[in-house]
Amino acid sequence: MKLTNTRLAWIFIALAVGAGACSSPASKVILKEARPVSAQTYYVAAEQFKTAQFAPPPAPDSYEQKEDLAAVLAWQNKRTEDDCAKANATANFTYDSLWGARSPFPQPLPAGVKKFFDRLASDLESAVTAMKDRYRRPRPFKAYPEQARPCVKKSWGYSYPSGHAAFSRVFACVLTDIVPGRRDEFFAKSDEIARDRVVGGVHFPTDIAAGKIFGDQFHAALLGSPEYGKDLEKIRALLVK
Predict the structure, then answer these.
(1) What's the mean pLDDT when you consider all of the chain?
(2) pTM
(3) Distance CA 236, CA 175 (A)
(4) Position 189 in a domain
């Protein structure tokens, strides 16, 4: 089979996602400093992600796009009511809905911890939106309304990269920065959340792969933020003893 530029890009993505590693100071992606798109920036400005190097989604009618749709339809044909209920549980994206009992912090969340994750989510939302606006990929149920039938609440934004995959990946990386010994647990939950978006029918698999890679890039930029380092030290003092 001929390896097109898009296919080569997605082979690279598959290999990168398979590594399953957060960024580290030695491997962080170097991104140009920029001003925020609109809202206040706390750690990482979103503007840089409008032009940061990133593989595009599969082209419409390409072999890769057909494979993406086939994967969505395969899950649609085999998913159970329990699968859909589980996917719905994290459709409303919040720190508590994602981590719940797995959170290393006291419940309810201390004010300082909530403020930290609210700031992180604000920056990440702006960055993910900047990326989605670059590619404007329709979600499966919009691209294929006659075939794709979601079993979770429909998200009406663009599909690529997956916001849930990016958010859960970044949160897993950040929680690993705070509690390194629980890395595998945090990443397993992150991967589960991301997969449920395909199970639920609101994302293609390549959206998920891209969301994970974008999450690693965003975390790399976080590691270069002095403000992030300072706030991380503050909330470490609030961990469950």
Answers:
(1) 85
(2) 0.85
(3) 10
(4) yes
